[in-house]
User: What shape does this take?
Amino acid sequence: MNITILTVCAIIGGLHLFIMILEMFAPPEKQGMIFKMPLDFVTQPNAQTALKNQGIYNGALGLAILVSLFIFSGTTRLMVLLLFMGFVFIVGIFGGKTVTKSIYFIQALPALCAGGLIIFALLI
Assistant: This one.
C-alpha cells in the first residue's frame, strides 16, 4: 500500500513541476493551446507575469510533495502528503471550475484518489 501511495504522490509532485515548466518557460502558443487560452491573451506581458507567478506556486507545491517523500517517514509522511493532496484537490477543483474542466481529471481526481489511499492506510 505504501509503495502505491508514494508512487502516486511522486507522480502528482512531478506533474506539478511539469506544469511549472509549461507556465514559466513554454512559448505563448503552447501555453494558449495547453491551457485553452486565446493567443492574444497569453502574449500580453501581464498574462505572462501571471502565468510565471502561478508557475512558481506549482513548482513549490511539486517540490514540497517530492521532498516530503524523503524527509519524513511513517505516519508523519502520510499526514504531510495528505495535507498536500488536500491542497492539490482544492486547487484542482477551482481550476476545473474557472479554467478548463480537464483540470478536474488532471489534478483534482488524482489528488482525491491519493488522499483516499492515504486515509485508508492511516486507518488500517
